[in-house]
Every structure is written in structure tokens, then in C-alpha cells.
Amino acid sequence: MVASRPDDRFAAQDLGDALRERGIRIVPTGAVGAVRVTLARLGTPAAQRALTGAGATWDSAMTAEGYVLVADSGRVTIVGASAAGVFYGVQTLRQLMAGATVHGAVIRDWPALRWRGFHDDLSRGPVPTLDYQKRQIRTFAAYKLNVFSPYFEHTLAYPADPLIAPPGGALTPDDVRALVAYAAQYHVTIVPEQEAFGHLHHVLKFERYAGLGETPHGHVLAPGDSGSLPLITGWFRAIDSLFPGPFVHIGADETFELGRGRTKPLVDSLGLGPAYLDFLARIATALHPAGRRLLFWGDVAVTSPDQVKGLPHDLVAVAWNYWSKDGFDPMLQPFLNAGLETWVAPGVNGWNRVFPDYAIALPNIQGFIAAGQRLGSTGALNTSWDDDGEALFEPNWYGVLFGAAASWQPGTADIAEFQQRFGAAFCGDVTGTVDDAERRLLAAHALLDSAGLGGATDDLFWLDPWSPRGQSAAEVMRAVAPRLRLLAEEAIELVARARPRAARNIETLDALELGARKIDFIGMKFQLADEIVGLYALARNPVPPTTPADYLQEITSMNGRLQDLRDGYTLSRDLYEAAWRRENRPYWLGNVLARYDAATRLWLGRIDQFNDVLAQWWTTKQLPKPEELGLPPRR
Description:
Elements: E1 2-3, H1 9-21, E2 36-41, H2 45-54, E3 67-72, E4 75-80, H3 83-96, E5 105-109, E6 115-121, H4 130-142, E7 147-152, H5 173-185, E8 189-190, E9 193-194, H6 201-204, H7 207-210, H8 228-242, E10 247-249, H9 264-270, H10 272-287, E11 293-297, H11 305-308, E12 316-320, H12 329-337, E13 341-345, H13 358-375, E14 379-384, H14 397-408, H15 415-427, H16 433-450, H17 458-462, H18 468-498, H19 506-540, H20 548-555, H21 561-583, H22 589-620
Parallel strand pairs: 1-2, 2-4, 6-7, 6-14, 7-8, 7-9, 10-11, 11-12, 12-13, 13-14
Antiparallel strand pairs: 3-4, 3-5
Helix pairs in contact: 1-3, 4-5, 8-10, 9-10, 13-14, 15-16, 16-18, 16-19, 18-19, 19-20, 19-21, 20-22, 21-22
């Protein structure tokens, strides 16, 4: 392996590590049967020989990050005009190698979008460990993403404001410095997002900062307060010293409280849009980082297209939408008309769900990024949020990789083609078994979406099926639960078959299995809850020779339905906690485990209750009315 430049040696090392991971030996150049890999910069003799021999041309669009890969006669040459181009050529070679055999190939490749990123919420619960973030960066880079945007409301530790960051639940300056240095090797730019207008409840809930809020202990900074801009500028001075990249994200989305409190007279006078945009412009002017661009979320500004033209023209508007598959032009056009650069932000749709809803996410990512390319957006920032406080990152890789492909390839990315290749590219499973498992969970979500239940949501997982809301869901769930469970159980079996075949990223198989088991439990919970109601009705009116005890023991016993429901939560808890600890710091985990414990206690209480009913029957031969036990009417 030969690298012509010192700054290409990291790419050579990365390739060597990948080869060893696949069991391919690295031997000295010239060894019999060896394949020589040369990393060459455009303009060098080695690059010229490779391009001329392959009849390959180079044009200006390729210069920033493009490459040419030439493989022939036991030799591979990767030509790039930049270190990033060489690195991305190496990543393509890694993906192509199923073994040590090299076949002839000539690939000319460069990205459709200059900035291709992923945005990870670090403020709604899980905060990843530094080691896991390094894994994220390595993986982003392997699939040619070049932006990582961590989202902060209160989880970036500011020495000047030590009250804000939760102990054990924030990135320290040392964490940031280590992460930035690590990402630079992989040509990944870290674009920090610090909310600078809304989404600041975890700051404003402190009495020291409460006076800066639009409402007491609310979510939004009051634009007219003299302390608002100094607080923001202090944060961003610290950010400027830690993050050296060309962009900083100031958020400024979903300022729902604006005009409901201290700013009401201003909003009544000017209107909500102008009042919002005025403060956004003041933030941009106050920060004005030298040589850097400010990104902001475009949801509020797009409602006031005429006022958008008054914003500083060096701002970058990030339009976001996580549910649509088309109709994106109105989200971008006002900014384009105002001369602002735009990025698009679709989402992997994993928040508030037990597993990402790719039935919604894949068309959303496909359509939004294609629209961005067509309208001249320069970047895509695929997103993951943790609104529920319990979303794990590992299940997101399916959506991450599709977003990477859609951002790199020109035009509209092919969902069906991606679904056939993910397992091989990510897990090394060339049999399609991982792909089949992912498709089963996508179909499970689609089934629940079409039934009007909104996919496999956390709400369905936690919902008590005997509560009034649970009974409403049960009306729909009765028709879909058998099919839902079969899809989930097929996914579990497929994951088991894929494990011995998968060569890497085994953690994703764990995430697939956990998601499938939770989806299966959702269906089982509603089924068994119905069966318990039916069994109790039979216990009150038994048909000889059966007795009430026969039916009651189906409800509660070593293998009773109630015990099954208890077991579903305890097993899920164990698997979930293990998955959390593989990714995240201990911070916030207790909040989620408390929900598992509460759900377990609910069914344990019902076990005790029905054990008492059984004992009562043996003594008195009497049974309470169903409503006395909290049972809903039989359907």
C-alpha cells in the first residue's frame, strides 16, 4: 500500500484496518499474489498513469471531494485532488471488497451535495459516551458524510455558566476537543447547534435565568430583555473557541411562546413573523463569528416570506420536515428568493417509537434531499431527535446510510436498491437476511400507520390496554395484532440467522432484535389483555366439567397471561438497559427504567389481585364483578 502524501497516510491506515477486519493479510509490496494499492494525488505521475491507462477524465466538479478508482491486473490506484477525495475513494474500495480478489473497475465519483451531514439530539435524554461518538464519526465518514451536528440545549458544559449542564450529562470542553480532533482525521466537520432562542426550558427553569424568559420558567428567551443577547453571545464565544469549523447552528425553531408573555405588545404591533425575524437578525449580528456561517432552522421564518429578505444574506436556512414525501418547494423557495443559502433536513423518524418508522422516513429522506438538489441547496442534514427521552441511536443506521446515499448521489435515491444492499454494505451479510429483517419491521410500522395508530409508538408500548385510551387502541389493534406479531417474530428469526453471517456492526442486529421484540410485545399485550377479559367471563359462567379455577389459572399461574405481560416488560427492560449502556452515559437512564419498573408493578399488582380472586373462590365459591377488578367490558 503506497500513499504519495503524508496526509493520505491516515486513509491508507484506515484501509489497512478494514482489510484486517475482513481477514485479509497486509503483505509487503511486491509479494507474490499481492494487490498493490496506490493512493495518488491528481497531477502526480502515478495518478496520470492510472487516468491515462483507464481513459478516465477529470473535471472541476470532482476537485473538492471526488476521486477516480482504477482496478486492473492486481493493482488498485485511487486518485484524488484532495485528502478528502482520496479518503472517499478508499471508502468505496472498502465497500467493494467482499474478499481479496480484485476485478477490473474504473469509477469516477463525486458528491451531489457539498455538505452531507447527520444531526444528533443530545438534549432530550440520552447523551452518548465519547467512545460511541467516535464510532458514529467513523461510520459517518465510511459512507461519505462530512458533517456531524450535535444538538445542545443545556448539555454543553459552559465554564462561565456552570449551573446549566446536568452532572454527568454534558460534553465538557475536553470532550469537545477530543471529538473535534478525532473527526478531523475522518474529514468530518463538527457543526454544533446551541439553541439560541427557543427550546431553552432547561436553562430558564433555573431561577437565575428565569427572568430572561418570555414566560416564567418557560422555553423561549424574551427578545426585549437586556440580558438575552449577552447570555447567547457568552455561549457562542465558548463555542468559537472549541469548534473550528466553518459553520455554527443557532437553532431558533419552534418559538411557540413568543408573543404569549413579555413580547405580546411587540407581537401585537408588528406581527409574530416580524418580531421573530427581528430578534433572529439581532442574534446573527451580535454573534457574527469571523469567517463562519450561521445556520438556523427555517420553520418560523418561512411563514413571513417578505420579511425573510431582511435577514443577513450570509445566514444558511435549514428547512426541516420529517413526515412528507413531496411538496417541499414552499419550504425552500422563500429563502432562495431572498438570496439565502439553504440546506434540507429530513429525519429518520425514530423518536417516540420503539424502532424507527422507515415506512415514513425513507420516502421523506428520498424526496426532501432530491428536492434540495433540484432547487440548489448546498447541504443535507438528516436528523435524529429524542423527544421521548428513550430513543436509542443504534437503530438509526438504516436511515443514516440512506441519507448518506441520497446526499452523495445525484437525483432521486432508489429505496428498493438501498434495501437490497444495506445488509451487505453495513453488516457484511451478503445473503440479504439483514435486509429482510429490516423490511419486516418497516412493514410492521406501515401496518400500524395504515390502521391509524401512528406506527409502533412508545405510547402503544406503555399504554395500559384496560384504560379508556387503551380500549380505544384495542378496537383497532384486534384486527392487526396477529399480522403485526408475525412480522416482528419473523424479524427476530431473521436476525438470529444473520448473526453468524454478519461480519461487522453486530450492535445493529441487537437493535433490530430489541425493536422487533418490543413490537411483538405491543401486539401480544393487547391480545392477552383481551383474552384475560374473556377468560374471566368464562370463569363466572363455566361450562361443566370446567370450573372457575381452570379459567382463573389461565389468567394467573406460573404460565398465566398476567405473568406473560409482566415478563414482557422485564425482558424488554434488561435488553434496553444493556443497549443504553453500550451507547450512552448513565445520565437520564433512571428516568426510562422507572417506566419499565412502573409497568412491571402494574402487572404484578394485577397478578396479586387475581391470586386473591382465586383464593377467594376456593374459600367462598364467589367471584367479584369484572368492573370491581378494573376489567373493561368483554368485546
